[in-house]
Amino acid sequence: MAQKIVAGNWKMNLQFEEGEALVNEILRGSRASDVAVMVFPTSLYVQSLSEQANGEITVGVQNFNANEKGAFTGEMSISQVESVGASIGLIGHSERRAIFHETDADLKLKVDTAVEKGFKFIFCCGEPLELREAGKEFNFVKTQLEASLFHLSADQLENGIIAYEPVWAIGTGKTASSQQAEEMHAEIRSWITERYSAQIADSVSILYGGSCNNKNAKELFACPNVDGGLIGGAALKAESFLEIINAF
Ligand code: PEP
Fold it and tell me: For all residues of the chain together, what is the average pLDDT?
């Protein structure tokens, strides 16, 4: 059975004290013990927040560099972020792909480095609006996964988590319907079954992301192939994030 996960991507939001207060409230308020709760603050806060979370909440990074060290001004390696308490990183968020021009090949390198270091990751995929409107969303997402993730061996893939995040739903208030989410998640699982095995497919968590909030989480999480959510805006307030965690 895939692990149920609710992860908050804080993006470039929250001052340090706000982040601390949010983690405090999440620690006090989350009830569902079989759900893994994760937060992805700005990397500056990782050390302090991971100490505060004390293993009850997983603290991760929104980005890392595939190189181990060297002349990469402004970048951080996996061993650096691990040394201050990060145990997981996002790879391939649509904002990194679109704004920072990260290519499938860049993401593949990050996946390979993460696997080599035993660093967990959430690999994000999802189609832009024009491709959904053209009925090409399944092909597009499959190509993203084949380009950067499906070269892994079965053992290596088991280390990863997939987040399906249709680009048209991110930060727009426009959520995929539970039917649209379930269809894509079921396809992703069937591709993993074809490429690996049904056992591996069942063990990989597939999260939904894109305007998931306290109003729609219950319906989305009730879908058999939706193992949780990667949450942006609604993860910034304890009340809505806790409701999402407790929606399982
Ligand atoms: C995200 O950035 O991963 C995301 C899902 O954002 P939002 O929930 O705000 O759409």
Answer: 96
SS3 at position 205: coil
Residue 94: predicted pLDDT: 97
Q: How many CA atoms lie within 13 A of 83 on its CB side?
A: 6
Q: What is the pLDDT of residue 174?
A: 86
Count: domains in the chain: 1
Exposed / middle / buried, residue 195 (Cβ in 10 Å: 0-12, 13-18, 19+): middle
pLDDT of 9 above 90: yes
178-to-201, 213, 231, 244 alpha-carbon distances in Å = 20, 13, 15, 15
Q: Scan for tokens 């996964």, then name that residue.
A: 145
229 in contact with ligand 1, CB cutoff 6 A: no
Atom nearest to 169 CA in ligand 1 = 10
Tell me which residue range forms the domain holding 155. 4-245
CATH at residue 71: 3.20.20.70
